[in-house]
Amino acid sequence: QQQVKQSPQSLIVQKGGISIINCAYENTAFDYFPWYQQFPGKGPALLIAIRPDVSEKKEGRFTISFNKSAKQFSLHIMDSQPGDSATYFCASYYGGATNKLIFGTGTLLAVQP
Amino acid sequence: NAGVTQTPKFQVLKTGQSMTLQCAQDMNHNSMYWYRQDPGMGLRLIYYSASEGTTDKGEVPNGYNVSRLNKREFSLRLESAAPSQTSVYFCASSDTGQRNYEQYFGPGTRLTVT
Lengths: 113, 114
Description:
By secondary structure, chain A is mainly beta. Helix content of chain A is 0%, strand content 54%. Chain A has strands at residues 4-7, 10-14, 19-25, 33-38, 45-50, 56-59, 62-67, 72-77, 86-93, 101-103, 107-112.
């Protein structure tokens, strides 16, 4: 089973700080790397995604950095806010007609006011 | 447009009991999925269905069965519940005609097996 390894398991950041979550994948055939955000009691929802033809994608305060040679990608949350407190999952799509994703183990982010 | 809906929201079962978790989507998506979420384990795929009438095993299928009743509905059945199946279960759907690969998740079912 192909894996996506995510770290850290939990993260505490002060309001206004930068949150960084890292993921590493194994299969070079993966060609789509999303991040999902999950609030307590809710289902995950797509936050931002990147394809391997670019090294960075930014949407507001959220940025994905992608390093194809190292097979790593990371989520950066700039100016972190208490409302960003949630669990974040990285994932990889590994092809086929089913849109199946492999998810990382999740990072619980707490932004302290 | 409700998106993905799941019933029930909460359920407590005794070991050996059976139950079916229901999932429906109103986005006309082809693919549907069942995941379980456990602390420290992330989201693990139980079964998926690429289209109406087809189902395939995911990473952790043992102890579960599924039915893709029609394009909208995808149910997950536990024939003989075990404490190891205590988890939060999520259904998701995706439009395989679009190359954005996004999956849309339901609100989840929290299942406890005693």
